[in-house]
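Quick question, first post here. What does this chain look like in 3D?
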Amino acid sequence: MGLELCTSIILCALLTVKCSDSDRDRNRPNVKPETVTADRKKMHTTERLFLTIIFVTILGCDFKPGRNNFWTEQSKIDEVVKFEKTLNKNIQIIEQKVFLSSSVFPKVDQLDIALPLIVKRGGKFIPLYAEYFFTSEDSILRYISYDWEHDRYGSYQAKQELWKSESEKLTQYDSAYQKIKEDLIRVLSLPLIEDKELEKSINQNGVEVYTREAIWEDEKTKSKLKLFFGDQTFRIRWNHYWK
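> Answer (accepted):
Ran it through. Tokens below.
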């Protein structure tokens, strides 16, 4: 259940309770005491009913404030758009040519993959770029990539100052990665492979980099969450595909 639908149900319930309170408070001349008592009992029952509806609605909402929201169903791309609109009805779609390689999606050469639907979501610390790749002939989702990264499609020159500031935020990136992993565990269960802390290494350019990684896999799907921090790349990426 999306945020907007949850909010609508809760508001309707609250308004109904408020109207009931107003009716109860009106002057009611010539009413017997026992009738008033019975009416009050009915009113209290009604209020409890609507409060229960509010509570159940909150529990049933998939959207949780502060929680990352993931799409993991192999559906038509239209369903993905509906999902994104439950998070933000004014979704921001990015027009960008992005292509997959067989190193990230083994079946890419076997399928006619269209240019992805790319949706940018806001974030308190890092914005999210959600890329949904689907086949041209049937619009069925094949590969998903979520990238938590500042100015993902910006030019090399424009990102020089950004990289300098981001290079000082290792602790924040590590915390963001941990939160995303915890949210994924709620959706995918525990990963098959994961590291518990940052791994430091020197890359081929002689630059110090930090990484973390977790992998989920079953007979039908594979997911990987990875943090890469250093050498002009400061990003958390989750990819998910169907075999």
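Helices lie at 3-25, 33-60, 77-87, 160-166, 170-188.
Residues 1-5, 16-22, 55-63 have pLDDT under 50 and may be disordered.
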